[in-house]
Amino acid sequence: MTRFALTLEFDGTPFFGLQRQKDGPSVQQSVEEAAFRVLGEEVRLHSAGRTDTGVHALAMRSHIDIAKDIAPFRLMEALNAHLRPEPIAVTRCEVVPDDWHARFSCVGRSYVYRIANRRAPLTLDKNRLWQVPQELDHAAMHEAAQALVGCHDFTTFRSVHCQADSPVKTLDRLDVEREGEEVRVHAAARSFLHHQVRSMVGCLALVGMGRWPIERMAEALAARDRQELGLNAPPHGLYFVAASYPADG
Amino acid sequence: MTRFALTLEFDGTPFFGLQRQKDGPSVQQSVEEAAFRVLGEEVRLHSAGRTDTGVHALAMRSHIDIAKDIAPFRLMEALNAHLRPEPIAVTRCEVVPDDWHARFSCVGRSYVYRIANRRAPLTLDKNRLWQVPQELDHAAMHEAAQALVGCHDFTTFRSVHCQADSPVKTLDRLDVEREGEEVRVHAAARSFLHHQVRSMVGCLALVGMGRWPIERMAEALAARDRQELGLNAPPHGLYFVAASYPADG
């Protein structure tokens, strides 16, 4: 068996998330079925992160084990051909050691959350950004975000369905920047709780609208209580951007 | 009657172009119908440019004349509410003098053409960029483009269906730049012939692929012969970016 690392880009709109679901289409199912058509083998796709319905990926790292002898470039081209017309693309494919695991070897994950801060409905960016009509104070959002950086109990920002053993995570980065009418939130950590990024962004948006004072973010974190969550941002503004591994240098 | 200038953003994918068509949906028809629902008046939308099926607009300038007394902000909000769920948005609305005409007063039009220069199929950017898998030499494309800048007979780059009186136009700008895997072509002129931008971009792509030497662009222009056209780029990479007017300062 040879292990291939795949970098996946996908539009999450038509999927019930990355991981296989009983009740609807998933990125995992599409890739595994494309691989079966290419190779005649049942493969299992493992990925660095799990994503919810509607969440996108620019560079999700995944792997599959294959018995058949095939060159990485040919595998990538064949998978892309068999994935059409679904909005999933393999943008990179390489052979990795057998002990490299897309999920368990991953030591860093980063996301970007994109907000369209405008009154007009979205057209070209529909399902790509969260539209927030109230003017957002991105500097206040950035300041509030810094209270979350570091090692904390993120219970407030955790879905009730989260399966992680512990609510304690170390958030390495939470930066808010504006470019024209777009406000972007960049988040990086070794790993995240379920809904953590969307929950943090939702509360940051309340700060940006002036509905929460900046200090309330630290108070919400300290409360360690899901009831303190102000708002969960919708999934379609969220992008999985990158996964990092020890060998990445 | 009061004349309102509207700035329109739209995703051209589901439309048979901006202008009203007998045989399919158009941006003009959608806006006029939304205005009728808002105002109870039949209005006629006039726009700075005509766009083909699949071509997008970031800021198309248009105008309508309205008998009813309504504030610009309220008109914009009501039009946007009634345009849903169609991918058309009014991003700006203002009262203009009766002799201001979105099409006839316009003295400058600019477009951007977006190319995704990559092998992998597009996912999030499907119908937003033209995917070109062969590596493009954007510096060669930019150099070739300069042969087209200035006042020329653009017959080679003109659709056989073009209704303009003359094939002579002054091209003010044709710049090619790369940002990562995206190659963008910026075009500006007082006005363009039908298919002119797409035809110029198609030939520039041939230069970028190395299938045309740089000099061939000037030769194709000088031939003044549609048969010399190498390639017409597809509509979905094209965006109408801006229209300018004498009073714009």
The tally of beta strands of chain A, per DSSP, is 10
The biggest chain-chain interface is: A-B, 24 and 24 residues
The second-level CATH architecture of the largest domain in chain A is: 2-Layer Sandwich
- Topology order of chain A in helix (H) and strand (E) letters: EHEEHEEEHEEEHHE
Helix content of chain A: 10-25%
Q: Could you describe the 3D structure shown?
A:
The structure is a homodimer of 249-residue chains. Chain A is 22% helix and 29% strand. Chain A has helices spanning 27-39, 72-83, 138-145, 196-209, 216-223, and strands at residues 2-10, 46-47, 56-66, 88-96, 108-116, 130-131, 150-153, 168-179, 182-189, 238-244. In chain A, helix 1 (27-39) packs across helix 2 and helix 3 crosses helix 4 (196-209). The mean pLDDT of chain A is 96. The first copy, chain A, has 249 residues and is of the alpha+beta class. Chain A has 5 helices and 10 strands. Chain A folds into 2 domains: 2-96, Pseudouridine synthase I, catalytic domain, N-terminal subdomain (Alpha-Beta Plaits); 108-248, Pseudouridine synthase I, catalytic domain, C-terminal subdomain (Alpha-Beta Plaits), CATH 3.30.70.660. In chain A, strands 1, 2, 3, 4, 5, 6, 7, 8, 9 and 10 form a 10-stranded mixed beta sheet that branches. The A-B interface holds A 9-11, 56, 58, 76-77, 80, 83-84, 87-91, 118-124, 126, 128 and B 9-11, 56, 58, 76-77, 80, 83-84, 87-91, 118-124, 126, 128. Chains A, B: Pfam families: PseudoU_synth_1. Chains A, B: Residues 9-104, 144-246 form the Pseudouridine synthase I TruA alpha/beta domain. Chains A, B: Keywords: Isomerase, tRNA processing. Chains A, B: Formation of pseudouridine at positions 38, 39 and 40 in the anticodon stem and loop of transfer RNAs. Chains A, B: It catalyses: uridine(38/39/40) in tRNA = pseudouridine(38/39/40) in tRNA.
